[in-house]
Amino acid sequence: MDGNGRWAQERGLPRFSGHKAGVETVRSVVEECVKLNIGVLTLFAFSSENWRRPAKEVSLLMDLFMLALNREVKRLKRNNVRLRIIGDHSGFPAKLQAKILEAEEMTVTCTGLVLQIAANYGGRWDLTQAARNIARQAANGQLVPEAITEDMLSGQLTTAGLPDPDLFIRTGGEQRLSNFLLWQSAYAELYMTDVLWPDFNPDVFKQALLNFSGRQRRFGRTTEQVKASAGVQEND
Ligand code: IPE
Ligand code: MG
Fold it and tell me: What percent of the chain shows pLDDT beyond 70?
């Protein structure tokens, strides 16, 4: 979700107004995902590197995160959305940590869309904490190195149990991953748009989905193989 600051600056507003507008966009995108029956939506809200921003902006973002959790959780529950906050919670103020747990708990029985908010998240951090967990098991004698497989490592990431993302959308015009879901996005289709996050709306989302539906996903195979297996499925 990139481009909040520029959206505000273009309007002569403080950057924070862009972040507030960005929360409105989150609400509309979540509702669109519910309508479209999408299984999992993961939003990159705050990276482990965003602490480097001016202290004032960081503290306003923390306040906004708290406010959004307070305001939106009931609506999520009504929409049967299960909320998960992925990232290093220990970096947040104690009150926010408690609110995160409470919000997750409130939607724990929801069975519809899984909404993951990545906050104080970094793909490298995710892999590092997974490596640490695995090493701990090995050091305890519960695991031999040969037992470490890709599936096992996936199971130690914060996204354990969820499918890898099919589509990776970045708004705001940059062409980079910026340390988001690095392992999980190995085969994600990338869609970069110049649209700034507060301007992202159901129409832009549909364009991204339409573009995605035209991609051929080969996962290392040849076009012929993919066509042949699609043919088999059609004839089933
Ligand atoms: C994304 O918008 C929101 C966060 C990273 C919190 P930016 O704040 O990065 O907006 P730009 O890139 O300055 O426009
Ligand atoms: Mg940015």
Answer: 98
